[in-house]
Amino acid sequence: MSKYVIPSLLLLSFSSASLLQANPQERAAKIAPYVDEQTIAVLYVDFDRIAVPDTFKQVAELVPSQSIRNKINANATSARGMITSMKEAGAELFVVFSSSDLPAPGPFLIVSTKQGADSEKLLAAFKEQKPEACEQVNKVIYSGSAAAFERIKSGTSAARPHLARAFAAAGDAPVQLLVAPAADHRRVIKEMLPKLPEALGGGSSSAIADLEWVAASVKFSPELQVSISTQSPNDDSALALKSTVGSLFFSLARNESVRKSVPNIEKLLSAIVPRSEGKQLKLSVSAADGNVKQLLAALSTPVWQAQASGDRQNCVTNLKHLALGMHNYHGAHKSFPSAASRNADGEPLLSWRVHLLPYLEHQKLYDQFRLSEPWDSEHNKQLISQMPEVFACPSSDLRAAGKTTYLVPTGPNAAFKVSEGARLRDITDGTSNTIMIVDASPERAVVWTNPEDIKIDPKKPIDGLGGQHEKTFTAAYCDGSVRQIPLDVAMKTLRLLFDPKDGTPIPQF
Predict the structure, then answer these.
(1) How confident is the model at residue 51 (pLDDT cuts 50, 70, 90)?
(2) Are 143 and 131 in contact (CB under 8 A)?
(3) Rounded to an integer, what distance in angstroms lies between the CA atom of residue 9 and that of residue 57?
(4) Which of 374, 474, 391 is nearest to 67 (CA)?
């Protein structure tokens, strides 16, 4: 399941479907066999007690990052189908985060269903997500990495009383996030991060490292309410944590992006100061305050900024790999690949992306294609699902559909022609002045094997570009360099960048 589906489910379920209350002790007991000393956190969602809106639009509106909105929208259809299957089965979802699985392969899922539910149907739905392992074990469904599955089968579970106490603190909320770092985790934080980064308020990390557990819960009836409780080892540590939270809020209020999106951030943050109750801190925010959306935007802005920045850099890395593959192809064939290979009758068969595979360390996949058949022949279309990650822009979750936004510009005034490959000597304007590959908008995505790209309109060359990253699109040039081009670039300048031999100097932009 995409990493953006679970957060979307969390935010999406904005109304309660039932007044039935779950038992915290039963929840803790259900997940106990699947947690060990390396477990850091558990996300819990009771699908039998949430009502799902028709679209993900509400979620996307809460997110200030365009690239994250793209991913949420891209997951809408598949996630709705999964949610429907979960609700039909009365499913309880546990997402288990373990230090053994981070940063990769990531958390695993445990799904418990109500008695008499069609668990086979739900298991099939999870298998469609193509996890490394997806099995029914001990009357629950496991979905995640093969390594984590082997750990579960070998019986390495361990008692985690702090996690059970966090479940108790979260009460009957249908959506909960329980964090309970083990002693080793707390020690590592103290050793590796004795001082918090300035972006998190600076100061000592001890108050955070000493936390025994954190319980965050979301209720939807009669109105949206988010509650957070923390447990420290003693009263003094709890007060130190409260001071650390205050420093974090102060740092957040100084963030220029946050201030831009939430001008009254200081007033909002002053209204959500946690209260001290001995060893615990407690904080609750209700939709009745009228500020939930603004608070979510403020608190999430640094997270989305970091994610968007990472996606942008990964996109640049992908295009650099593709540009290098293009040059290696040129070294072997004395030209770049044509946009499409063709049969004797001139009919298009396969994309340049397929013919680049041997130069991207995917020779085995290339050898499986029948090069004399079109991309959508009965044989070749079976390979669509094997799209290499290098063709997937991280800002669009289109890989599961076998689609890419990495396209070559075609047309009479572009480097690529439909039936013949460009040669470096023909790019007389200079390879550093000519665009070779673009990251197009999600609406222009194509099946990666399909010989379809983007035809440049000389009158409006920006058409089909943008939407993946804020205010820019990414392009690889014929010299192998990759740059971010602003969406407000002059149309004349962009037209010159696409034309390999117009003979006109490129203006600065």
Answers:
(1) low
(2) yes
(3) 12
(4) 474
Does residue 152 form part of some domain? yes
Three-class secondary structure of residue 120 per DSSP: helix
Nearest to 169 by CA among 226, 219, 231, 225: 231
pLDDT at 287 over 70: no
Mean pLDDT of the chain: 84
Percent of the chain predicted with pLDDT > 70? 84
Give SS3 for 265: helix
Instruction: Tell me the mean pLDDT in the region 331-355.
Output: 93
Report the alpha-carbon distance of residue 178 to residue 49 in Å, rounded.
Answer: 19
For residues 18 and 132, state if they share a domain. Answer: yes
Within this chain, do residues 137 and 170 fall inside the same structural domain, yes or no?
yes
Q: For residues 237 and 210, is the Cβ–Cβ distance under 8 A?
A: yes
Q: Please name the residues in contact with 62: beta carbons below 8 A apart, sequence gap of 6 or more.
A: 11, 293, 296, 297, 300
Token representation of residue 495? 């037209």
- Does 187 lie in the same domain as 174? no
Verify that 239 and 169 share a domain, yes or no: no
Claim to verify: residue 243 and residue 146 sit in the same structural domain: no
Residue 474: domain span: 315-498
The C-alpha atoms of residue 124 and residue 186 are separated, in whole angstroms, by: 39
Residues 466 and 402 reside in one and the same domain: yes
How far, rounded to the nearest angstrom, does the alpha carbon of residue 428 sit from its chain's CA centroid?
A: 40
CB-CB contact of 394 with 435 (8 Å)? no
DSSP per residue, 404-456? E-EE-EESTTSSB-SSS---GGG-TT-GGGSEEEEEB-GGG-EETTS---EE-
128, 129, 447 from 401: Cα distances, Å:
12, 11, 8
